[in-house]
Design goal:
With 258 residues, the chain is of the alpha/beta class. It contains eleven helices and eight strands. Helix 2 packs across helix 3.
Length: 258
């Protein structure tokens, strides 16, 4: 547990260390390093070195003067792995972390052994073709005013695991700093840009995800040349939290092949 200084910020990171193959985790917009509590022990036991970090503006990461430096999240990630002396690694993301992951695989493909994007539509909101996918009934107009736990956790999980919901809410409420810089995306994303990705990719969708609708994720996956698409039944936007055993198995089975 330590800080690394990168371009006007100090990023908080946790590293299990060792000489095993590294896996870097990118948390969602509603998370921090604490959100990977179900993943790090499982991946470490499977023989991987796990690195988690609070992105700029989240958790315990710090900025002396928020907003004073225009930054891209992919640059922060690149600086972190350079600091750690990691040449190649598996990159695993969920939700908003998928924005960073996709930007990074386009910006630094030479660094990645594989890419996992779970429950994320990525930064494609400017692509008309992408936005045309789906129904006008996908979300109600007041969707963003609903509580985060309702938007992101599936009905099955909310009803079956109230203690897990409580802990998820605690992490979410402590995750985003009020005064912080907005991370930028370096590349202008389109479905056509996905076709240039050369890294083996796994895309995981949750069948009950109200954010990253499976039809959109399926189309994204179809544009990436070497991509496996998996749909997790009953899972919401936080599938890694709701169904960690199944999620971990899917990801570990995938990265072992690369």
């Amino acid at each position: 547990m330590a800080y690394v200084d990168v371009d006007g910020a100090s990023l908080w990171y946790e590293d299990t260390g060792g000489d095993d193959t590294p896996v870097v985790f990118l948390h969602p917009f509603t998370g921090t390093t604490e959100g990977w509590v179900y993943q790090v022990p499982a991946f470490t036991a499977a023989g991987y070195r796990c690195i988690t970090y609070d992105r700029r503006g989240w958790g315990q990461s710090r900025e002396p003067a928020p907003g004073s430096v225009a930054t891209c999240a992919t640059d922060d990630l690149h600086a972190l792995v350079e600091h750690l002396g990691i040449a190649r690694y598996h990159l695993v993301s969920s939700g908003g972390g998928g924005y960073v992951a996709l930007d990074h695989v386009v910006s630094h493909p030479e660094e990645l052994l594989s890419l996992v994007v779970a429950c994320s539509g990525g930064p494609l909101q400017g692509d008309p073709e992408y936005m045309a996918i789906g129904s006008k009934y996908g979300r109600i107009p007041q969707f963003q005013t609903l509580p985060a736990w309702f938007r992101e956790l599936s009905p099955t999980y909310r009803n079956a695991n109230p203690d897990g919901v409580d802990r998820w809410i605690e992490i979410d409420e402590a995750s985003r700093q009020r005064e912080s810089s907005q991370e930028g995306i370096k590349n202008e994303f389109t479905l056509a840009l996905l076709e240039t990705i050369t890294v083996s990719t796994l895309m995981i969708a949750g069948s009950a995800d109200l954010y990253a609708a499976p039809p959109r994720m399926r189309v994204m996956a179809s544009r990436i040349p070497d991509c496996q698409f998996v749909l997790m039944p009953e899972a919401g936007h936080a599938a890694y939290w709701e169904q960690p055993d199944d999620w971990n198995r899917l990801v570990l089975d995938f990265i072992r092949k690369h």
